[in-house]
Amino acid sequence: MRTVVVIVGVLVVLLALLWACQRHLIYLPDRQPAPSAATVIPGARDVSFTTRDGLRLAAWFVPGERDVAVLITGGNAGNRLHRAPLARALAAHGLPVLLMDYRGYGGNPGNPTEDGLTLDALAARRFLGDTLGHTKVVYFGESLGAAVATRLAVDHPPAGLVLRSPFTDLAAAGQANYPYLPVRLLLRDRFPVTDLIAGVRAPTVILYGTRDTIVPPRLSRAVAEAAGDSATLIKVTGAGHNDQVFLTGSELVGAVVKLADRAGGTR
User: Is the pTM of this model over 0.70?
Assistant: First the structure.
């Protein structure tokens, strides 16, 4: 009996630690300040904008000659420097690109949470429209950022929505990676993509890799099913979650460009 009590006590302590520290497992920011934009992407410039809760966030903007811009919301790890190849690839097609970093990423103040990332993306979208004058915007969301982009798309409809390796909700992705933990019970941040995506009123493209072990392909396919007829599903055969093809691959870049074309962006 005493052994059982000890085991139960240990489990309770472990679960309490997981509850308290879970955001350190979900969000893996590179907190180092990103270098100057122009040193990484020719013609890019450093910009910043303020969230509704008062955080000043740094970002990179790459100008372009087209009138449809792209807002990139990244995944849970790294910072904007790691997504520079994607911004360069899109800029090569004349698309203006805003490559944002969330709070706590890339030298930005604050700590990431679901509500916080929502505010960050909203501030970025307002900056594109109110400050830079871009009324047509394609949202590009990567993994966790796909959830951020979907939430933004419901309240602020884009010209198009591209979701790369999206999950149905964070709990489903967490359960796939931690199958022996009560993930759904413990999670504070939910990111309910399938609950939201039916409310998106924009052409949507969903891409996933067949060898993705971080977000299982079945979850991305389920997002496409929930999106309905407005969504196009693209399978990238042999691709893992962090492969280069999801930064500069022709299928991914082409999907964004086609949505911009559909929105009537001039070349």
Answer: yes
Two tokens, residue 92: 């090569």
Do 47 and 127 contact (CB within 8 A), yes or no? yes
Q: Are strands 231-236 and 68-73 parallel, antiparallel or unpaired?
A: unpaired
CA within 13 Å, CB half, 82 = 20
Kindly report the number of other CB atoms within 10 A of residue 182's CB atom: 12
Tokens read off for 58: 């740094």
For residue 71, give the nearest of 18, 16, 138, 5 by alpha carbon: 138
Question: What are the counts of helices (DSSP H) followed by strands (DSSP E) for the chain?
Answer: 10, 10
N-to-C CA span, the chain: 74
Two structure tokens written together for 95? 């698309």
Assess contact for 208 and 220: CB atoms under 8 A. yes
Write out pLDDT tens, residues 79-88: 999 999 999 9
Q: 3-class SS at 88? A: helix
